[in-house]
Each structure stands twice: as C-alpha cells, then as structure tokens.
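User: For a benchmark we're assembling, each entry needs the component sequences followed by a predicted structure for the full assembly. Here are entry 17's components. Please fill in the structure.
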Amino acid sequence: MTASHHAPQSRALRPTEPGMLPAPCDPAHVESIIRSHERCAALGLTRVDRGDHTPLIRTDLNLARERALRLHLHAAPVMELLLEQTMATQSMVLLTDTHGTVLHTVGHDGFLQRASKVALAPGANWSEASKGTNAIGTTLMNEAPTVVHGEEHFMQANGFLTCSAAPIFDPRGNILGVLDVTGDHRSYHMHTMGLVKMSARMIENHWLADDFHHALRLHFHSRPEFIGTLMEGIVAVGRDGRFLGANRSALDQLGMSCSALRMNTLGVLFGTTLGAVVDHFRSPMATPMPLQLTDGRRLHMRAVFNWPTWHAVGSLNVVDNDAPTAANVPQPASTGSFFGAASGARPATASDAATASASLSGLRYLQTGDAQMEAVIAKVRRVLNRDISVLVLGETGTGKELLARAIHQDSNRSRHPFVAVNCASIPESLIESELFGYEEGAFTGARRKGGVGKIVQAHGGTLFLDEIGDMPLPLQARLLRVLQERQVTPLGSSKSVPVDVAVVSATHRNLRDMISAQTFREDLYYRLNGLVVRVPALRERSDLMVIVHKILRAEANGLPPELTGDVINLLQDCHWPGNIRQLANVLRTATVMAAGEAFITREHLSDDFLEDVLRQRGERVAVPSVPQVQAADEAAPVAAEASPPATTLEAMEIETIRRAVDEAGGNISVASKRLGISRNTIYRKLRWRQGIA
Ligand SMILES: Nc1ncnc2c1ncn2[C@@H]1O[C@H](COP(=O)(O)OP(=O)(O)OP(=O)(O)O)[C@@H](O)[C@H]1O
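Assistant: Structure for entry 17:
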C-alpha cells in the first residue's frame, strides 16, 4: 500500500463543528498531518493498528523519570495550573521525555480511566513510530507545537482524542520533552493550544533562570510593557560578554538560532557593554534601558543580576568607559592603525554591530576573506544536509572544531546536540565506553546505572570525532560497524540502540600514510571521507588582520584598542605554529595588559611571543626576563646565533615548543597556555621529535 492511501482523507480534515475545530483549513496544519501520515505508512503502520501498548517496565520507567527529574520539578506546578485552566474540557495533562515516553500525567479521574485504555499513561510511548500521528510524536518530529484532532490521528483507535502539544527547549536550544493536553475530541477548545504553548514557555523560563542564576539576565521586548510577561525575550550573558543561552521569545525577536546567538557578544549584537548595563541598573528605580539591534530595531531591556557578584563589572567599566582616548593621549611613535582612523577606545556603535551582523551565522562567521577558506566553505555548503561525512584536515589550532560546529549550526540538525569526542585526549582504555556507552556493571569501576555513550548523546545531531587518527585500531572496527549499521551496542549489553548522527571528523595526521603503515583502517577512511577539506594554517592565510580584528572585538567586548604599526608587523612576521588558538591567546593577553589604553604596543605583548618572532626574523632577542636567553647571550653576541637556526617551519615549531617547555620548568600545562596549543599537541610533537632524533 502506498503512502497516499494512508494520508488523511478529506473526511478526517473537514470540520464538523465550525469555529470549534483546530484550523482545518490552515494549509501548514494540513501539510504537517499529511506528512506525518506518510511517515507512518512508510514505517509500515496501518490505520487499524492499535499501537504498542506495552508500557516500560517499572525499573525502566523509574530510570526515565530519574533522567528527567529536573524537567518534572520545573513542569509539575505548571501542569497543575494547566489542568485548572482546562478543567471544563474533561482532559488530562501529560509530560513526556524526548523519546515520547509518558513520564507524568494529571487529569480527571473519569478521563484518565478512558485514556489508560489507549495507553495514555506513564511508561507508554507516544512517538510516531509507536502510535502513528499524534500530537506528542508529531511535535517531537517537527519540534514545533502541534494539534492532532479526532481522525487526524493515524490510528483509528485514537480518533476519539483531541491533543495539543508543545516542545520544551532548554536555553541552549536542546529539546527536553513535550507538554501535552489530551481530551475527548467532542470537548475540543480552540484556546487549549495557546495555553499549552504558554505553559511550555513558563517551564522554559524557569529552567533558564535556574541554569543561569549566576549570570546576567536581560529581559527585553520592543514594547516596554511586555517586559515581565511571557512575551519577553530573555538572554543570559557571561562575564566575558558572551551570550550563554536564551528563551524562545528572545530567539524569535532576534531572528537567530541559539547557536548563532552563542557565538555573539553583548557588544556586537546589542551595541552596549556589561559595564554600561550594570551601571544603568545600579539604581533600583532604573527605567528600562533602550537598545538598538544591528538592523536598527529598537528594544527595551531590564537586567537581572546578583549585585554583589556583578557590581565590580560596573565600576570596572566606568573606568574603562572614561579611559583616555586617542584624542587626548599622545600616540606612540610610528603608530599605524589597522582600524583606520585613530579613534582610540570607543563604545561600540550600531554601525559596528551592523558590520558584525554579516558574520552572525556559523559558516559565515568563518568567512573572513581568505581564498582557501572560502573554497573550503563553498565545498562544505554543497554537502550540508546531504548525509555525507566530512573529514577536516589541518594543523592544530586552525579552527577544525570551529568549522565542524559551524557545519552543525548551519545544518537542519542544529536544534539537536553537537557532541565532540577528542580521541587523543581520552585514555585508550576509556574511549570505548565513552563512545559506545556501557551497561550497569559492564566493567570494574563502571557507574552503577551504566553510562550513555557519546554516539547516542549525539542522536539527531552531529558527532565530531576530533583527532580521529589517534583512535586505536580495534575501536576503528567497532566505529565502522556503528556508522554502517546506524546502531550502537553499549558495552556489556546485547541490545542495540538505533542512532541517527551526522559525522564530522578531524585530524592533523596524514591518514593515507597511516593506511599504508596499517595503523588506520582503509574502510573506515572511506566511510569518513565523503568530503575532505583542509583548513589552511594561519601563516598561509591572507586574512590575518581581519581575524585579529574579530578576536580583538570579542576580547574587548566591543571596545577594541588599536594596534601600533610595530605590533601589526610583529603579528604578520610570526609563523604561528599554534595557529589561530595561539593568535587568540596573544591578543587576549595583550588586551588585558593594555586595559584602559587606546593602543596595544610592543610592551603589551608577552615575552614568549616577542622572543619567538624576533628569533624567526633573525633579530637579536632583547627580552631580559628569560634565563635561557641571557645564558645564550653570554655565550655569543647574538642570541639568534646561540643555537643553529632551525631550517624548516616544522623544525622551528618543535624548537619553539621545546624551549617553551624548558622555560616552564617542564610544566606542560604552563607551556601549553603560553603557546596557545593543547597539551596533547605538545606531547605529540615532542614524542615525534624524539622518534626522529
Ligand atoms: N576563524 C576564526 N575566528 C576566530 N577564532 C577562531 C577561528 N578559528 C579558530 N578560532 C579559535 O581558535 C581556537 C582553536 O580553534 P579549534 O579548536 O577549532 O582548532 P582545532 O584545529 O580544532 O584545534 P586542535 O587541532 O588543537 O583540536 C578556538 O579558541 C577558536 O575559537
């Protein structure tokens, strides 16, 4: 039987009580029901099926409830309130988890009894796969509020129901579960859906306030009287000015996804600073603060924060905002400013924000003018949402993970998790359980209740396998099986769990060489390399200064200091073995050192960085604070001559790392911070060096 035989017939969609039924003529609603029926038919369900009524066994239900305990705590009072509002309609309120398993119900005894006959009870599963088209399952599929009324239900046995459901999201955009009101179809009320949506928002707002009670929370709307209502947008902001999370109304008002928002700062998006916000709300009588978005729209905003924690931010920025500008401070000799006119420190303006608005979304954020990078992004865009695995190659710190995140963010999986696994940093003995999960008691030391593996955590979203070249051979075979069969069997379990993940992997290694050396499986390589892209090293890129600008804006929270010509030359002469990660570290330190000053000068740069660049230039190193350099100076008049100069970039990189480790007294963590590269990279590089020594 074809899908169209199962599509709802016009009889099912025709209103029998005009004005009282869920917008049957709304084309989007009809389309959504038809699509759902087609999915059910494709799953092999028929309209005369009664659905799987087997509830979870008690221990599994308890486990599911325990996992969703926090959701229930937030939802329980709202469910009671919702029941009160729908009292007249003989209905029940249900809460389900992300699989559609009913966790809790409240309702009228009479209706609860009838409902239990069609398995509307805790432990039952109401995903589409289990019960066909229904508000819970279809909401989970569409991640959008859905009404399913009477015969719109795929299974005729459920035709006596009318159900209105809305998804519940956390402030990072992950779906937590579904809230649903179900009743007898004869008691349908057109306002039920609105009540369910509002209730879901109440739960989301409680969750956000709970998650971010230490953060600064901004409540906003274009109309000041809407602040404090369920229509208000709420965003949480960290002490670095970055957005941490948001409610749905905020995302709707700002017109962006949660992940796009989280790549932004207060300065870029709202054109203000943490200090300005904290100072504005210093007074208990403060009126809402006016804001202007990058597209010129005006908003009104109130801030909620814990005063003892945040007051220092306010006073700090008062000093910052009053800091001398280029107009009243003599410019350093040989000043050349990358940022154009010598404007000095200045508040972010709407036009700054407008310039930045072009870079809000995932892949667009990475487009900063380098031709090689543009080619990478163009290729990646072509395979977005095509179920093609992407393999990202490139040196450490070039932005491989950032590219993977951007691919996820721009894909239609962006509302699902992005889960990163670093195969080099997890001890070999733990990779297996981390990736595949394990059953209770699967191995000595396993947690009592077992653990969900990263692959299952990424279900619906993207799995990022970083440093895939470091994955041990036996696990490569298991991973290949998972990718082929699209199911995972946790350690110690005989049951497989179906998974749907997009895979992006990355490595700095040459996998082809590894295949020749039989340390990487060829079949896995071909599974991972649907599209291979290479992220260029920073020294090969033509957009160094655009990236510098971008990082400075982010670091300075909208008030970037300028760079002297000397500093620009130093940045351009560096070979950047740690790539953008190292650059970001150098700029972060310089921004802190230059706090309150209009220009970053050579004095604000770290000695390590200066020493490296000067050595690379072959200039005399005049950094007195490093003992090794002094010793070398004693031995020879020019420091650069103290040891034979490294001849290749690779050798220079190793030399730089070795010196940093020596200078940190062998402390790899300190050296990795100074260099801006990961500890693993240091281990790897030095191990490699010993290998060839
Ligand atoms: N285009 C960019 N603009 C701004 N910051 C960037 C850019 N690319 C990378 N970064 C920053 O550089 C740092 C390193 O990036 P990322 O972790 O993605 O690199 P990587 O290649 O995956 O590194 P590794 O190989 O060590 O895992 C991060 O802090 C990231 O935010």
